[in-house]
Specification:
By secondary structure, this protein is mostly helical. The chain has one domain. It has five helices and no strands. Helix 2 crosses helix 5. The longest helix is centred in the middle third of the chain and has 26 residues. 13% of the residues are buried. The model has no long low-confidence stretch (mean pLDDT 82).
């Protein structure tokens, strides 16, 4: 019972932090917030994070998520090139491999940071859990579109 209260408190605290950090009024941003909240809850549950671990893990996760969003935006051409990426190849077109290489570097960097908080095995497992959540999201979207 006490563990459940801690988990519930942690999830509520993280949800509150995400909501207060991204308070926007458009319908799309509300949907995005709801998805992010579900993602945080899913990660917390799947990694079996204690309240203390969650308190230290999610600020790192938010930094990781921000860097990945910036990189993906740059890769699709909707923002400036992030540091560490040579965006143009010799022909003047975007060099997608540079973006992919930078994505791998970011993941390796954050796996080390995550490991300091939650251990090596769960830090490596995080990326699989993140992918699983994305797949669940795609399945739900396909189900709703039918």
């Amino acid at each position: 019972m006490l563990r459940f209260k801690h988990l519930l408190f942690t999830i509520c605290a993280v949800v509150f932090a995400v909501l207060s950090a991204t308070a926007q009024t458009t319908r799309d941003s509300k949907r995005f917030e709801a998805i992010e909240n579900e993602k945080v809850a899913y990660i917390t549950k799947e990694l079996n994070l204690s309240p203390n671990e969650a308190q230290h893990f999610f600020p790192l996760y938010n930094q990781y998520n921000k860097e990945m969003w910036e990189l993906k935006s740059a890769k699709t051409g909707s923002s400036a090139t992030p540091r560490g990426v040579n965006s143009l190849n010799g022909s003047g077109k975007r060099d997608i491999l540079s973006y992919d290489s930078r994505e791998l570097e970011i993941k390796k960097e954050y796996r080390k940071k995550f490991a300091e908080v939650i251990g090596n095995s769960r830090a490596s497992e995080f990326f699989e859990i993140e992918q699983n959540f994305r797949e669940l999201l795609y399945k739900e979207l396909r189900r709703r579109n039918k």
